[in-house]
UniProtKB/TrEMBL annotation:
Organism for this UniProt entry: Hyphobacterium marinum
Protein name as it appears in the record: histidine kinase
Record-annotated Histidine kinase domain positions: 238-452
Residue ranges the record marks as coiled coil: none
Keyword Transmembrane: yes
Entry EC no(s): 2.7.13.3
Database matches in Pfam families: HATPase_c (PF02518), HisKA (PF00512), Response_reg (PF00072)
Residue positions, PTM 4-aspartylphosphate: D523
Keywords: ATP-binding, Kinase, Membrane, Nucleotide-binding, Phosphoprotein, Transferase, Transmembrane, Transmembrane helix, Two-component regulatory system
Keyword ATP-binding recorded: yes
């Protein structure tokens, strides 16, 4: 929405935008004239009565009657004008016509008042001179006030009043009193200047009021958007755990079943079932990760780390997929110590590799490379896919936008991969690079800062490829199907397992065990509001050791407490068996928090 509005604004000529603002102000001035019409007429009628009284005091009864009738008639015209011409109120269609008519009536009023003043002028009487000068001056003072609604109205009134009367004064009055005519012309010029400043104040007031209303409308719209976003996050937070539970159980049972099959056709059928399961897993994980980014649950934690370790892990993760699709995967040497968040960097590169493999046809090539530049280390993923036309390159970073998928790519998608990459890069404060040309492939990457010289990266112990030594694993999972599937899978991997549905049951079973646990696997959200982190803490207290733990979670937010606990690896649901196995081996043999 914001991008569209900005694009629209940029497409407008500045003069057109200014003209539109002026039109909006004129519309408000017309409405102000209508709202203040009654009060203005009462004030002017008060002046009419005041001068009528002065003229009666001077003994000119006939002229007093003429003055009262004509000026009161003009006040009546001003009062009736909006009621007759715009009975339904001022609109964008009628305000110009209304203002033009109001200027004409004001000019006529000035001419009539000026004519009556000239008719009444008698240079031989000081009282007469006082009355006539006040007739001319008093009615124009209102147009100089900061509350004056519309300057062209004042200009018409003052011009119709001052110019004829001042010229008449200069012609008919002799002696030093003639200078009063010059003074009236000076007062007229001063009035035009002051009224200009008054209108500026009026326009600024109206513009400020208009901006206030626009800001209030924008705030109301933002509240609606924020409410919708919060409701979306709450919905996903409430449902992601429940949605991931059956998928998680299916994944564990699939892997357990694979070990029991001995015929090629059975394995082939299971491969197809597993491919469908992985598609569902990928879709749910993308939705959850996007929602976590929107909610602010993902926070970058910078540290110095060896980029080679990250890229080597990604090579191991994707080489089987690339081989299955007939794509050559090349991972270049990346011997750089960079200063960033290794987890977020891994997510970014994982998404870029997954995207490249999805859109590269069989026989193509995908490369992961790193090179030093003036800005840092550019880590990029290149492919020999179809490329993206320039007209579509902005759209692909919008949520839920997908272009044509390569024929050999089995998985559907939601179009969230690149938007997530860009948001993660923003979290890191890293520049995101993207180049693509139809027929020449795509190259995308991020620029990471090099760590300061002499700063040592976090050490990572050598991690074996297999689980050895029959480690004792405490499994706490309230969902029976997931607990059973995971227990079977862990047993197949050579682990001894204590499986429990709650923390209390796990504590009781642990007290009967004849060995210390090597690992704790717990669901984050257990039955009856029990928190898996609390269970981990209690089990560690029982054995008086910081036993490594893996926390399975389908929640979108509320992961801050995990970062504060040592040697806890968060594994988002639904995790596949490869992810669980890698996390399990890393937790058993790694030195720190996952």
């Amino acid at each position: 929405m914001t991008d569209a509005a900005d694009s629209f604004a940029r497409s407008q000529d500045p003069a057109d935008l200014l003209a539109g603002d002026i039109e909006a102000v004129r519309l408000e001035q017309a409405r102000l004239l209508v709202r203040r019409n009654r009060l203005s007429c009462l004030i002017v009628e008060g002046l009419v009565v005041y001068f009528t009284a002065l003229i009666l005091f001077a003994g000119d009864y006939a002229f007093a009657a003429i003055w009262f009738v004509f000026t009161s008639l003009l006040v009546g015209v001003v009062y009736a004008y909006p009621r007759l011409t715009v009975p339904d109120g001022i609109t964008a269609e009628n305000f110009r016509r209304f203002l033009q008519g109001h200027i004409a009536i004001s000019t006529l009023t000035g001419l009539v008042w000026s004519g009556l003043a000239m008719a009444y002028l008698d240079p031989s009487s000081l009282l007469n001179l006082f009355i006539t000068i006040n007739m001319v001056v008093s009615i124009t003072l209102g147009g100089m006030l900061p509350s004056a609604e519309y300057r062209p109205t004042f200009v018409g009134l003052a011009s119709g009043m001052f110019l004829p009367f001042s010229i008449y004064w200069l012609v008919t009055v002799d002696g030093p009193a003639r200078l009063i005519g010059v003074g009236l012309l000076i007062f007229y010029g001063f009035g035009l200047l002051v009224s200009a400043r008054s209108e500026i104040q009026t326009v600024e007031t109206l513009a400020a009021e208009r901006n206030r209303r626009l800001a209030a409308a924008l705030q109301a719209q933002n509240r609606i958007i924020e409410k919708a976003s919060a409701e979306k996050s709450r919905f996903l937070a409430a449902t992601s755990h429940d949605m991931s539970q059956p998928l998680q159980a299916q994944g564990f049972f699939l892997q357990a079943l694979r070990r029991l099959l001995d015929r090629p056709e059975q394995t082939e059928l299971l491969d197809k079932i597993e491919a469908a399961w992985r598609s569902q897993q990928t879709l749910l994980q993308a939705l959850v990760e996007s929602a976590r980014l929107d909610s602010g649950a993902i926070v970058a934690r910078r540290t110095a780390f060896d980029l080679e370790i990250v890229t080597a892990g990604l090579k191991s993760e994707f080489e089987a997929t690339a081989a299955r699709r007939g794509i050559a995967l090349h991972v270049g040497s990346c011997p750089f110590i960079v200063d960033s968040d290794p987890l977020l960097v891994t997510r970014i590169l994982r998404n870029l590799l997954s995207n490249a493999l999805k859109f590269t046809p069989a026989g193509g090539t995908v490369e992961l490379t790193a090179a030093v530049s003036d800005a840092g280390v550019l880590v990029a993923v290149s492919d020999t896919g179809p490329g993206i036309p320039a007209a579509d390159q902005d759209r692909i970073f919008d949520d839920y936008v997908q272009l044509t998928r390569a024929r050999n790519a089995p998985e559907p998608g939601l179009g969230l991969g690149l938007p997530i990459v860009r948001q993660l890069a923003s979290k890191l404060g890293a520049d995101f690079s993207f180049q693509s040309e139809p027929g020449a492939g795509t190259r995308a990457g991020i620029v990471l800062p090099l760590a300061e010289p002499g700063r040592e990266p976090e050490t990572v112990a050598d991690i074996p490829d297999e689980i050895s030594g029959a480690p004792l694993v405490i499994l706490v999972e309230d969902e029976a199907s997931i607990r059973e599937g995971l227990e079977i899978l862990l047993t197949c991997w050579g682990c001894r397992v204590i499986a429990a549905a709650s923390g209390d049951t796990a504590m009781q079973l642990l007290s009967w065990a004849d060995a210390e646990p090597s690992l704790i696997i717990a669901d984050r959200r257990l039955a009856d509001g029990e928190d898996g982190l609390d269970v981990v803490d209690r089990l560690r207290g029982e054995v008086l050791d910081d036993v490594p733990a893996i926390l399975l979670s389908g929640d979108i937010v509320q992961h801050d407490a995990i970062a504060r606990m040592p040697r806890v690896t968060l594994l988002p649901k639904p995790a596949d068996s490869d992810q669980l196995r890698a996390a399990l081996i890393s937790a058993l043999h790694g030195p720190g928090t996952g």
